[in-house]
Amino acid sequence: MKLTINGKPMELSVPAETPLLWALREEAGLTGTKFGCGIAVCGACTVHVDGHPKRSCVTPCGDLGDKPIITIEGLAGQAGLPTEAALHPVQQAWIEENVPQCGYCQAGQIMTAVALLRAKPQPTDAEIDDAMSANLCRCGTYPRIRKAVHRAAALMAGAK
């Protein structure tokens, strides 16, 4: 199966019904996307498919066609920055606001925040809470997440 992951075409040996999460982790070696619940509830497995957040644990590879897939590893490239050399502004804001505690859910949180900021470059607290409520954090870092989304919005506005 041919998939375009983080801007690179990849040939993966997986059946069409294989969840994208396992193709990414086991076949492509991209382990930043995490398994959480396996039923699209927690958000730890969030990636972008054709520019939209998608729960990779329930997305069969065969449903993807030629849609581009972006994982946490390829996020910096989406900001027009070299993937190996830079962080996406949301990743930078996460660091500056010291968001992660255990860190397990953070890749999914960041991918959701990027999608939010793409749709609403200057979101309100309520819009952040609404968008991010679909991603669970057992450590309860929600106030720091909200603060980081605001910081990322400012960083992104300053870059324009």
Can you walk me through this structure?
With 160 residues, the chain is an alpha+beta fold. The protein has 2 domains: 2-75, Beta-grasp domain (Ubiquitin-like (UB roll), Roll); 80-158, Orthogonal Bundle (DNA polymerase, domain 1). 37% of the residues lie in helices and 11% in strands. The chain contains 6 helices and 5 strands; from the N terminus they run ββαβββααααα. It has helices at residues 20-27, 75-78, 89-96, 106-119, 125-132, 142-158; strands spanning 2-5, 8-11, 46-49, 52-55, 69-70. The protein has a 3-stranded antiparallel β-sheet with strand order 4-3-5, covered by helices on one side. A hairpin with a 2-residue loop joins strand 1 and strand 2. The longest helix has 17 residues, at 142-158. The radius of gyration is 15 Å and the shape is globular. The N and C termini lie far apart (38 Å). The mean pLDDT is 94.
